[in-house]
Amino acid sequence: MLDMAMLDFPKRLRENAHLLSLLSHYAQLGTEDRTIWQDRRMQMEGIDSKQMTVLHGELIAFDWIEQNTGHALGRPDGTISGCYRITQNGLREFRRIAGIEAVEQEETTEKPQPRIPRKKKAKSEPQAVETSEPSKDSVAGTLRVRNSDSAENLPMCDEQLRHTSDVEDGTIHDNYNESQQLAQ
After folding, report:
1. What percentage of the chain's residues is helix, strand, coil (to nearest 5)?
2. CA-based R_g, the chain, Å
3. Can you give the pTM of this predicted structure?
């Protein structure tokens, strides 16, 4: 069954001196600017590394510190830099237990890092040019679409030929009428 004393966070903090000491450590580091990520406290007197992990886990579970392990860096001496920071709830609870009058500051969100805009490719208008004359057997021709990025041949039907034309030597040729004459 669930122990209700575990859910009484202030009571848990008052009863566990090591938990209070660890919260005090992060609260003192975060009093000036709580948005700065702090190095992980690796050792405390009378506590082994496994117990330190449990204490950090409790502080995270109670929402008294935040974890930043995705961006934290390990140092050669074993310290993990930029790993934790105190939360507003953590500061509030620490001040309440320490008897310090709480001065609520508005939560300042971190500024997102500016994104570098991508260069946009210049789009050119596709140009339609007929590439072959229709034969007597078929009224369909081939339309070539030219673009700066790609070129492809597309089959044309009679309806499409009706609406296309070629300009050759300043003379406009109606492809539909020419293809009808060739078919006869």
Report:
1. 35, 20, 45
2. 37
3. 0.50
Phi, psi of 59 (to 5 degrees): -60, -40
Distance CA 139, CA 118 (A): 46
Residue 29's contacts (CB-CB under 8 Å, 6 or more residues apart) are 36, 38, 86
Q: What are the sequence ranges of the domains in the chain?
A: 4-98, 127-183
Q: For the CA atoms of 67, 73, 79, 82, what is the dihedral angle to 10 degrees? A: -40
What does the pLDDT look like over 25-57, one tens digit per residue?
999 888 888 888 888 888 888 889 899 999 999
4-98 fold? Arc Repressor Mutant, subunit A (1.10.10)
* Tokens of residue 136, six digits: 């007597």
